[in-house]
Amino acid sequence: MAENENGQEKTEEPSEKRLREARERGQVARSRELGSLALTAGSAIVFLVFGGQMLASLAQMMRQSFVISRAEIFDPAAMFSRLAETLVAGFLALWPFFVAAVILAVASSLLVGGWNFSTQAMAPNLDRLNPLSGLKRMFSARSAVELAKTLAKFLLILGIAIGLFQSMERDFIGLGQMAFHPALGRAAELLGWAFLGLSSGLLVVALIDVPFQLYEYKKGLRMTRQEVIDEFKEMEGKPEIKQKVRQLQRQMSQRRMMEAVPTADVIITNPSHFAVAIRYQPDKGDAPWVVAKGADELAFTIRKIAAAHAVPTFESPPLARSLYAHVEIDQPIPVGLYTAVAQVLAYVFQLQRNPSGDQSPERPEPMVPDDLMADEFGRAKPTAG
């Protein structure tokens, strides 16, 4: 099993971060055998479809190249002009093959590894010029595997080629007895079938090589457990940084909570240890909900902000402790506290409708169910059973 320089075994699959960094360095899985298969099979199809036309165009180009007038012989500039015309004619004759080769070469690369452009891979690497590194690569286990694979591929293709030649021997010999243009078409057809036969052997090689290259790529990027831990720490941040982030989040949450205190309908207190701000909007929900809550210093701040914005305060230690223990901020109160909170809200609303105090309503004593009681520290009491 692969080990790193510290002797630790690389047993863990590569993370998304390591795979992404490998692609940025230009390291992607590639299969040369798949490219060879694509080019060979593509050549076979091109020769079967356009072979006769290409060979006829090449023959016409050759005839024109050997027809030289007396004036052109004594004109040095004409030689360069004739060379340029010949090159253009040759390209136009073979353009289906060139276009197919480019498309298939790109497509075969995209099938394994996908599209990847890396400037880091283009940067000069002096290690590649080091003779010792080159010798290590030549005599490495990977080089031995590549050599064995190349020999096996050579023997397979050689055997297929010999079999194709023996089966097509009479057809190739018969080309000499055919007229020129029919012979060109027949030769292109034979070449197409020959390439197609060779590609069948390359198909077997590619079916073995593609999974092997993908496995080797993932294997080369495997990580040790320590590397996984270090990467996780790097991504998640150091403990002191995470603590600072949580502190900032708490401060932001408290700031938003304090901004919501003036919108509350009532502040239920303990009277000094706990403070819970309740808001009720019948058009937005059936139940009141908690917009802010706090203990000790935070409770004092809530009461101070409430007093500055004329938000009424109602002292009920059992209800305040229960709300603090069982309800989170921006959450509705539980069903078991509906009656108690409704009594408080009704009392507060009656006071607001009668600010002169001529007919003061009777102050309620809200009752908290046993299963929603909390202790003096604002912790929910365990229920029996």
Question: What is the topological layout?
Answer:
Blueprint (H helix, E strand, L loop, with lengths): L15 H9 L7 H34 L4 H4 L2 H36 L7 H4 L8 H8 L2 H34 L5 H41 L4 H12 L2 H22 L5 E4 L4 E6 L9 E7 L1 H12 L4 E3 L1 H10 L4 E2 L5 H16 L32
Parallel strand pairs: 1-4
Antiparallel strand pairs: 1-2, 2-3, 3-5
What's the short version?
By secondary structure, this protein is mostly helical. Helices cover 63% and strands 6% of the residues. It has a five-stranded mixed beta sheet, sandwiched between helices.
**Largest sheet, order of strands side by side?**
4-1-2-3-5
Q: What's the helix count? A: 13
Name the poorly predicted regions: none
Global outline: elongated
The number of distinct β-strands equals 5
Mean pLDDT: 81
Largest sheet: 5 strands, mixed
User: Beta-strand percentage?
Assistant: 5-15%
Order of helices and strands: HHHHHHHHHHEEEHEHEH
Q: What does the radius of gyration come to?
A: 42 Å
Helix content: 55-70%
Specify the structural class: mainly alpha
Amino-to-carboxy terminus distance: 54 Å
Q: How would you sum up this structure, described in words?
A:
- With 385 residues, the chain is mostly helical.
- 63% of the residues lie in helices and 6% in strands.
- It has 13 helices and 5 strands.
- It has helices at 16-24, 32-65, 70-73, 76-111, 119-122, 131-138, 141-174, 180-220, 225-236, 239-260, 297-308, 317-326, 338-353, and strands at 266-269, 274-279, 289-295, 313-315, 331-332.
- The chain has a 5-stranded mixed β-sheet with strand order 4-1-2-3-5, sandwiched between helices.
- A hairpin with a 4-residue loop joins strand 1 and strand 2 (274-279).
- Helix 7 runs antiparallel to helix 8 (180-220).
- The protein starts with 15 loop residues before the first helix and ends in a 32-residue tail after the last helix.
- The relative contact order is 0.10.
